[in-house]
Amino acid sequence: MPAIASDALVLRAFNLGETSKVVVLLTRERGKVRAVAKGARGARSRYQSALEPLSEVRVSLHGRQGAELFRLGACELLRSAFPASGRGLDVALALSYFAELLDAFAQEGEAEDAVYRLATAVVRAAEEGTDIVVLTRYIEAWLLRLHGIYPPLDRCAACARALPAGPLRYHGSAHGFICEACGPASGPVIPEAARAFIGELFHRPPAALRTPAPGEAGPLEAFHHDLIGRHLERDLRSYRVMNDVARGLRP
Ligand SMILES: [Zn+2]
To answer: Which of 34, 54, 94, 97 has its CA 20 to 30 A from that of 125?
Structure first.
């Protein structure tokens, strides 16, 4: 009897000794777990491409309940992430970022069904051709919201009165958007068009998102990055790589 049988997304895998790998999984049943995949480095490994980041798999995990490290038994590939990452370098780099982001936000052993559904929906939308920059802002926004970090868009964080239409003014020490009456905001200011776009991110499934104008999604990049950085208290390597490459590719 396996300790856990669950659908899972592969977040990353690293080498262990000469022949094995440790795989970090986001399981539907048990949140983030680590498992040893014995023999995964061999040419005749039974796992083959099932351990690629963001592949969707069905696994059985063996070991003591509450153990820090399980042993990976069966690992059936349900959906490879390869068709999505094969769409181009920008998509492949963004998917690396999504995997690192999910890894950083997920707690070991704590099931979060909404996060699991978010992750699988985003990978599928990437495969189907949804704009990758929009998907990046989407997964950031939802991970922040599901962990209680995205500030409410309709209430002043200081006085709780309804925020008027127009730009949103973020105030760092209030951890949210504040109204004019509550004084000057530390920034940033989210323009009205970007505010409307945040609304779309929270009300549409990822595959139904449209490609926004630069003024709609652009201001959210630094804003999300700042919220994520303050929550995780570190920078993600994949984010830096993705941005460096994007800058180099642009004329
Ligand atoms: Zn106020």
So the answer is: 34
